[in-house]
Write a structure and sequence with these properties.
By secondary structure, the protein is an alpha/beta fold. 30% of the residues lie in helices and 21% in strands. A hairpin with a 7-residue loop joins strand 2 and strand 3.
């Protein structure tokens, strides 16, 4: 019996990548699907709104850690002075020491999210609104991981890996924080470091991510009982994104052979979400 339970758990995590199962079930479970007219219209909010949210959260995280960041910021003309002024403007006189990333997110956006045991049977870990209130159309999480283009090798990383997200255009994001996937991400992050500036966040591989939004890979698929309250939205990071804030981006490209924007995937709320609610997504997007 124990062996059967183990096999069932493994099947529950793998079946969403098993093509015959998908063909038989994807059209039956219409409540777990999201339909869009075409790939270019798969946007709940604008790219500008996504970028503004990330800039707001990342700037708050940097200001919270300004004492450690100062020497690196001094290398950017005017950056150290600008962030020091922003820090002085928002400083709470009664505050003692830096806040946790979760507290920074709560103060900045009015909510925080956390990983915990899912309310779905056999689902394992899920993501919950820990504190506050999340309005409809808000960026509530990011899907971290190494970004692979269509031609790049991901076979060995994909074996037994339920955390591979496929974008509409075929780009893949490996959100697994263990094993080979973890080693590949760390290697790519070290490769891309620019002097004292990190071009990506590696802390999502740990139990204490510095970017508190980087938990999107643990959001579970909706069911008949639990309707989706968030959806995935693809976002290409613009080239003008501040270099000092890239340290909070939880994604890295596998290869630099092709010059392109960094692909990120954010999770956007489909309705207002209250404190204590679990996040549920649509794993499948059908393009008509």
């Amino acid at each position: 019996m124990e062996l059967l339970r183990v096999l069932r758990r493994r099947w529950d995590t793998y079946k969403y990548r098993f093509v015959p199962w998908l063909l038989l079930n994807v059209r039956r479970q219409r409540r777990t699907l999201r339909f869009v007219p075409e790939s270019s219209q798969d946007k709940l909010i604008s790219d500008g709104d996504v970028c503004d949210t990330l800039l707001k959260v990342f700037t708050a995280l940097l200001l919270n850690d300004l004492s450690r960041q100062g020497p690196a910021l001094a290398l950017l003309p005017g950056a150290g002075r600008r962030y020091a002024q922003l820090r002085a403007d928002e400083l709470d006189p009664g505050r003692q020491g830096p806040l946790s990333p979760q507290e920074v997110l709560l103060r900045t956006m009015g909510f925080s999210v956390t990983r915990d045991r899912s309310s779905l049977r056999s689902a394992g870990t899920g993501v919950f609104v820990r504190e506050g209130f999340v309005p409809k159309g808000a960026v509530v999480a990011m899907y971290p991981g190494t970004v692979y283009r269509k031609h790049e090798p991901i076979f060995f990383q994909s074996l037994g890996n339920p955390f591979i997200f496929r974008c509409i255009d075929g780009i893949l994001i490996d959100g697994n924080d263990k094993g080979l996937s973890r080693s590949v991400y760390r290697s790519c992050s070290w490769r891309d470091q620019l002097g004292p500036f990190q071009m990506s966040d590696v802390s999502w591989l740990t139990a204490a991510p510095q970017n508190p939004l980087a938990v999107g890979q643990y959001v579970n698929n909706c069911s008949y009982e639990k309707a989706a309250n968030v959806c995935y939205q693809e976002f290409d990071v613009p080239r003008h994104f501040p270099v000092e804030l890239k340290q909070y981006l939880p994604n890295i490209v596998y290869s630099h052979e092709i010059d392109s924007h960094l692909r990120c995937v954010v999770l956007v709320t489909l309705r207002d979400i209250q404190q204590g609610e679990e996040l549920f997504s649509n794993y499948y997007t059908i393009i008509n």
